[in-house]
Every structure is written in C-alpha cells, then in structure tokens.
Amino acid sequence: MSLPSSAGQQSSLLRSLGWVRHSFLPSGQRPPDNTAYALQRHTATVCPAESNFPPKQSVADALFSHHGQPVAIYTADCLPVLIASEKTHQVAAAHAGLKGTLAGILQQTLRQFFQAGSTAADLFVAIGPAIGPCCYELGLPLVEEIKACRYVSGPLPGAFHPAINPRALRPTAPATQPAFWLDLPALATRMLLQEGIAASRIDNLNQCTYCMAEPGASYRRNTHTDEGYQLRFSWIASDLPARPQAD
Ligand SMILES: [Zn+2]
C-alpha cells in the first residue's frame, strides 16, 4: 500500500518548480504504487524507468524517467539524489553511496539529461538525508583509494576527526580507529558543480541518517547499536508532458 505523496521530507528547491512531485520518505514507507525502482548494486548504471517497472527487473543505481513516471531509489546512509530538468520536464533518481559516487553514478545520470537535450543550466538537484561528516568514519587505507578516483579532485571534504553536529538528535557515531570523517554530501555537491550545475540549483538537506533521521534509518548505526534498520525510499515524478530535445 502506498502512502500519500505528501509524506516524507521535501526539497524546497524542487517544490518551487511546481510540476515536480517528490519525497525523501522515512524508513519503511513505500513510494507510490506506479514507481519504478531497480536492483541496486553500487554501480554507475542508469536505466530508463520502463526497464524497472514492475520494480527490480535489473541492476541499476539510477533511474531516468523519460515520460514522468515516478522513479525511486532506496538508501540506508547512502546519498539519495533527485534531479529535474525544467527544459524537458524529465526527472531522475540516483543512489549515490560512496562506491557508486566514485564509480560515476552522478555523472552518468547527468549524461542522460544531456543526451535528451538538457544542459547543466536546466537542471535542479536535491540531495536528501545521508550519513554526514559527524558519523561517517572511514579507515585511512580507503581514503587513499578515494583520492585516486578519477572523479575526485582537490582535498577530500571532511576531517581527521568527526564534525560537530549541533543538530544531532542522538549520539553521533563513535570513533573506532585512526580515520577520516568524510562529508559525502559535500563530495557529491562538488562533483555536480564540476559538471556545471550552479550552487543555487543544488539543495542539500544536510540531514544525517545516523544522528538526525528517524530511528532505523541508518545501516551504520545498526552496526553499532543492533537496533535494526529499514530502507528509505526517495522518489520523484513529473506532472508535465516530457519535452525531449534530442533527435
Ligand atoms: Zn551524524
């Protein structure tokens, strides 16, 4: 059973468009019944909505909606990224965990928009709840791997200590090793900027799933507390007819 489309958190930027319906749902809630979503494997694979409706027909970590059908991804600390084009009225949802982000899932998703006739200036992006630099501890060997990624340039956003989160609603993640505390939403934001999207067109909700979201929202927190977790769906749909510009 699907819940009303008004349930969950919204991006004020996407809402301001008027023709986009979307939500970052709390853990355990379902997207609308006609929503397409894929089998996610932290890849850089993007599929059209039709190829994963009914859901989970094939592996993909982003879904592109050519004709307005709701598309979703599910997360439990990874980054949910929703994108809309005001030129073509097409929308997409991307699952951008660390692995997928390094594999180029965001760049591949943007490429679908570009191939359909949008430019970076036509796009609006919302980054939903994900584990934040207050709670995302990475071992140092992994940090070296990240720095070697072709999509990563400049100093990694984050620090060798956890960020203080004054908005935390519960204890942040404990430090368990010599580590780097990565700001994954900031890393994704930087990649989007590098693709030409203006900062004013990127809405980062900056909500940490570990210490700020509802209980059961965080895979990482479950590894520390054994409290269990459920997937969080993030979905987006267009209410206007698509206007693809490509041949
Ligand atoms: Zn946190």
Q: How many structural domains? A: 1
Q: If classified by CATH, what would the architecture be? A: 4-Layer Sandwich
The largest sheet, given as strand count, sense and whether it forms a barrel, is:
6 strands, mixed
The CATH superfamily is: CNF1/YfiH-like putative cysteine hydrolases
Instruction: Output the CATH topology.
Output: CNF1/YfiH-like putative cysteine hydrolases
Judging from the principal axes of the Cα atoms, what is the shape? globular
Strand content: 15-25%
3D architecture notes:
The chain has one domain: CNF1/YfiH-like putative cysteine hydrolases (4-Layer Sandwich), CATH 3.60.140.10. Helix content is 19%, strand content 22%. It has a 6-stranded mixed β-sheet. Strands 1-12-4 form a 3-stranded antiparallel β-sheet, with no helix packed on it. A 3-stranded antiparallel β-sheet has the order 8-10-9. The site of zinc ion (ZN) has 9 residues, from loops.
SSE order and pairing:
Elements: H1 12-15, E1 20-24, E2 46-48, E3 62-65, E4 71-75, E5 79-85, E6 91-96, H2 98-103, H3 105-115, E7 123-127, E8 137-139, H4 140-147, E9 158-159, E10 179-182, H5 184-194, E11 202-204, H6 219-225, E12 232-238
Parallel strand pairs: 2-3, 7-11
Antiparallel strand pairs: 1-12, 3-6, 4-12, 5-6, 5-7, 8-10, 9-10
Residues 132, 134-135, 165, 168, 172, 208, 210-211 line the site of zinc ion.
Give me some keywords for this one.
247 residues; alpha+beta; CNF1/YfiH-like putative cysteine hydrolases; three-stranded antiparallel β-sheet; 6 helices; binds zinc ion; Polyphenol oxidase family protein; Cu_polyphenol_OxRdtase
